[in-house]
Design brief:
single chain, mainly alpha, Growth Hormone, Chain: A, 18 helices, 2 strands, 76% helix, 1% strand, globular
Length: 506
């Protein structure tokens, strides 16, 4: 069979066997994340590297602005991307088209010019906007809404993400920063400062492999998606519906205005735009929480998780900015006298996910309905993230005596990983449970909007990184830990109310 039931492979609740479609999506996302995290590991370091060494020669503040706006766009475009998948393309075709655009973006970054650098970032952002919500929606479609394997399945899917993210910095970091590879380029008569672009090209190869994996099984998912839409009486528009065009223009235009407002908030005197945008979800929560239907109140819960995710990613995504600079400038990057690229630290988070994700998946499966609710998991995730930045306070003070041990960053990434596994895969699972069937892609787009705003704030916060002043640096880490810790306590206090808004969904 090639229908939705065949993909779901339904078994009694509590059994650990997962739907067979999960394997294909696991490997597709693995390679897409290889491409994204491979490029992300290099992005800030490439920008701040002097031009004579092959970089762009940006200041830390300039790199932070570009990093924040780019990573914001990657996730913000998931809103129109999810809508277009829901209304026009279907998730299967959106994954394939998005993958093609992503690959083109990475290969464009491999070209040595400032114009192609920005063009490549635009293409990767556009492609990810189509790809990311669509593949998550396909994972959710493998399960019935009350299937207790769902959280475990998303944890397994998340492990695939992190296998790709683990391999990526090792490969692209070596190609971009490795002394051995640079020496090889020089011996071949090539410019060793061009090594950055070989790293970007490797990311494009990863995305191409992911596309091939998915295309082999695409018909299976296409049939399953068509079956699910038919069961819910949902159709993909054929282009003749004026309402469809109106809604599309509204979603795309609204996202563009939102992105423009967040970018403009970087300009002197326009910081109030950021405050207005970030206050709007709070107003929306109050409004939806007072609506008469369960579906409307669930939107209030979705927006609470959106805000929690935004705060989480604002600090977590410092990994590609302030933590990357700390690793490059203030950490002793060697083991047993053997030096290694600073980009390799970014593999630690993924390594810990690979180690811990099966344990979390088994834990949620074993606990069944006794497991903590989604709001509690979110609060615990924020708490672990806060503790990781508290750990960096003494590490920052120790930089006064010189570069610090790599073990500080090992501890940071371990604590952050525990927090991530309590929030990110659980968040994806919760969104697919709370979302109306007709708007799953759009709701996942809203979920990724939290990541978008979080990444933007990561750029804003990361601009305050000062490698030359240990006291200021320790204060930098403490302030962010305090911010996240307070958010965790607030969410925990609101848990009973959020559970009522969720209307029985855990």
């Amino acid at each position: 069979m090639t229908d939705g039931a065949a993909l779901r492979d339904r078994v009694p609740a509590g059994r650990e066997r997962q739907p067979r479609g999960l394997r294909t999506l696991f490997f597709t996302e693995l390679w897409e994340r290889f491409s994204y995290y491979g490029m992300r590991a290099l992005l800030v370091l490439f920008m701040v590297t002097p031009q004579e060494q092959g970089g762009l020669g940006f200041t830390t503040a300039q790199a932070a602005v570009v990093y924040g706006n780019y990573t914001m766009a990657v996730y913000m475009l998931a809103i129109p991307g999810g809508f277009i998948a829901d209304r026009w393309l279907g998730a299967t075709r959106a994954v394939m088209l998005g993958g093609v655009i992503i690959a083109l973006g990475h290969f464009t970054l491999a070209l040595h010019a400032t114009a192609t650098f920005y063009a490549g970032l635009v293409l990767v952002a556009l492609g990810t906007g189509l790809f990311k919500p669509s593949i998550s929606a396909l994972v959710g479609s493998l399960y019935e809404r009350d299937d207790e394997r769902r959280d475990a399945g998303f944890s397994i899917f998340y492990m695939g993400i992190n296998i790709g993210a683990f391999l990526a910095p090792l490969v692209t970091g070596y190609l971009a920063q490795g002394a051995g590879f640079k020496a090889g380029l020089a011996s071949a008569g090539l410019d060793p400062t061009s090594s950055w672009h070989y790293g970007f090209a490797a990311a494009g190869v990863g995305m191409a492999i992911g596309l091939l994996v998915f295309i082999r099984q695409s018909q299976l998912f296409d049939d399953a998606e068509r079956s699910a839409r038919a069961g819910a009486e949902i159709t993909v528009d054929d282009g003749h519906d004026r309402h469809a065009w109106r809604d599309t223009v509204g979603i795309v235009g609204g996202t563009a205005l939102l992105a423009a407002a967040m970018v403009a908030s970087d300009w002197p005197g326009y910081g109030w735009l950021r405050a207005v945008v970030l206050t709007a979800p709070v107003v929306a929560i109050v409004w939806f929480a007072t609506r008469p239907t369960d579906e409307q109140r669930r939107i209030a819960a979705i927006l609470v998780f959106f805000l929690a995710a935004m705060i989480f990613w604002a600090i977590f995504e410092q990994a590609g900015l302030s933590i990357a600079l700390f690793a490059d400038q203030l950490t002793l990057n060697e083991i047993g006298g053997i030096a290694f690229p600073s980009a390799w630290y970014l593999a630690l988070n993924s390594l810990f996910v690979i180690m811990l994700a099966p344990a979390f998946a088994a834990l949620w499966t074993r606990m069944g309905r006794a497991q903590p609710s989604s709001p509690v998991k979110f609060a615990l995730g924020l708490g672990f993230l806060a503790s990781s930045f508290l750990l960096m306070v003494p590490a920052a003070m120790l930089t006064a005596a010189g570069k610090v041990s790599p073990l500080w960053l090992v501890g940071l990434y371990f604590l952050q990983t525990v927090g991530e596994l309590l929030l990110s895969p659980v968040g994806l699972s919760t969104m697919t449970k709370l979302a109306p069937v007709r708007a799953t892609g759009l709701v996942l787009g809203i979920w990724f909007l939290g990541s978008a705003f979080g990444n933007k704030l990561a750029g804003v916060l990361g601009a305050g990184f000062q490698s030359s002043d240990p006291e200021a640096l320790s204060r930098f880490f403490f302030d962010q830990a305090l911010f996240v810790g307070v958010a965790a306590l607030f969410l925990l206090a609101l848990t009973p109310l959020i559970k009522r808004w969720m209307g029985g969904v855990r």
